[in-house]
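Next comes a concrete protein, fold included:
___
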Amino acid sequence: MDRVAAFLVAARTSQSLLNEPRVADSWTQPSALPGFTVGGLAEHLAGQILATARVLTEPPSTHELVPVSEHYARAAWVGADRDAEPNVVIRTSGEQAAAEGPQALAVRVEQALTDLEVALPDQPADRWIRPPAGPWSLSLDDFLLTRMMEMVVHSDDLAYSLNLTTPSFPAPVQEPVLELLVQLSLRRHGATAVVRALTRTERAPSSIAAF
């Protein structure tokens, strides 16, 4: 399964969670993420699909192309406090979008996915995309990886918020996402901390979170 196919599977899996009746029933209730309602978190999850559909309607980016590791080194939200401006903006935009309600979101996600299933397979993997955290460019392949990571992480957030089973993503989604998260954790905490967390509970650090 190539990156495009993996992304589309991840997106359809995320859509299935978004369409769970409990999401709509709990739309205005707090989520497991402080500052996010269930609706705001659902919008943020869906935004990974909607943003991908949107960037494909734009001309290729002309900003500097960077590898995915440099993308996260530059992104202002990475490592920022929960109340830092970049994270406040993320939450605020999700909450504002949630005003449309779950039914309207479901329609938008389905249309975006229908468009992506047609458009994505014809796109070159080295097409330059400007990510939301820019201004710089990622290759389409790397951009899709960053969106897959967001979908895997926030699907768990949303499912946990509602006491639902976390969606199961196939290996072509999970493996590159886990590899990316480990790389980011290594950069933040160092190899010794990661090795201990994975193998030695008696001296494991309190956290090896990637962000």
About this structure: The first strand starts at residue 128 and ends at 129.
